[in-house]
Amino acid sequence: MTGCTDADGTGPTSRICFSQRLRLHYVDWGNPDAPPLVLLHGARDHCRNWDWVAAALRRDFHVIAPDLRGHGDSAWPSDGQYTMAAYIYDLAQLIHQQGLAPTAIVAHSLGGNIALRYAGIYPEKVSALVAIEGLGPPPRVLRERAGRRIAERMQGWIDEQRAMSGRLPRRYPTIADAFRRMQEENRRLSPEQLRHLTQHGVNQNEDGTYSWKFDNYVRVWPPYDMTTPDVEELWSRIACKTLLVCGRESWASNPAEDGRLRHFRNAEVLAVDGAGHWVHHDRLTLFLEEIRRFL
User: Fold this and answer.
1) In which order are the strands placed within the sheet that holds 103-108?
2) Mean pLDDT per 10-residue segment, the chain (295 residues)
3) Most-buried pick from 5, 162, 204, 223 (CB within 10 A)?
4) Residue 245 sits in a domain of what CATH number?
5) DSSP class of residue 281?
6) What is the count of structural domains for the chain?
7) Distance between alpha carbon 286 and the CA centroid of its chain, in Å?
C-alpha cells in the first residue's frame, strides 16, 4: 500500500469555494502548472478517500478533489435536497472558478454519474474521463422504477423525507467503533485504509462521541430526475476518451454486457477481477497502472 503523502510529509491543502451560496470544501495537491485532474468521490464518502490515488499522480497532474455538497467538510443545503442538477452545477462552478478546463476527471459511483453527465453537457471541457461504476443503477432497476407512477414516487419520497427528519446521526463512543462499522461495510479494506478513511470521515460531537460527516438526507434519492433517454443522450455527446471501470464482484452490472456501452462514442470497459464497488481501493496497484496507461 502506498502512502498518502510525499517523502517530505506534505499532503493536500484545504480550500473553499462557493456554489448556490453553499460553502464547499476541496483539497488541492499542488503542482498548478501540470494538467488538471479532478477526483470525484461517491455517495456518503469524502474527498480524502482519493489520497492514495492523488499521492501517486500529483507529480504528473494538478490534482483537485472536492467534497460533494452534504459530504465531508462541505456544507449541507438547508432544505435537505440533493439533486443531480445541483451536483452538476457544483462541479461546473469548481471547474469554471478555478479555470481547470479542459480537465481530466476520475470519478467513483455518484461522482461518476455526475462527471459523465457534465462531460455530455460540456464535451469541450473534459479531456479524459474515468468513471468507476458511475452509470447509475443497472437497466433492470431503472425499468422497475419507470413502472412506478409519479404519485407513487412522490408519496414514497415524502415518506422517506419524513422518516429521515426524525433520524439522528449515529453516534459512536470512539473512532475505533466507527472504524469497526466501516469494516463491516467493506471487508476488502486494509486496516490502514480503514483508519485513514474513518479519521477523515467523522466529526467529534460536543459530548465526545463521533458521527459520520455526511448529511443523512443524501440517502434519499429525488422522486424525479433526467429521463433515461436524456442521460443516454448526454453520454452520446461525450467527446473525450472514456474508461468505464467495474468490479467483477460488485452489485453493478458491466456496461459492455448490459448494453449501455453502445451509447458512448469513444469508451472502453475495464472489468477488474477481485474487486467490488470500490475498485480504486480493492485493487489500487492495478487501478493506478491502468489510470497511468489511460491518461
Assistant:
1) 13-19, 22-28, 62-66, 36-40, 103-108, 126-132, 241-247, 267-272
2) 51 96 98 98 98 97 98 96 97 98 98 98 98 92 84 94 90 95 87 94 96 96 92 98 97 94 97 96 97 96
3) 223
4) 3.40.50.1820
5) H
6) 1
7) 20
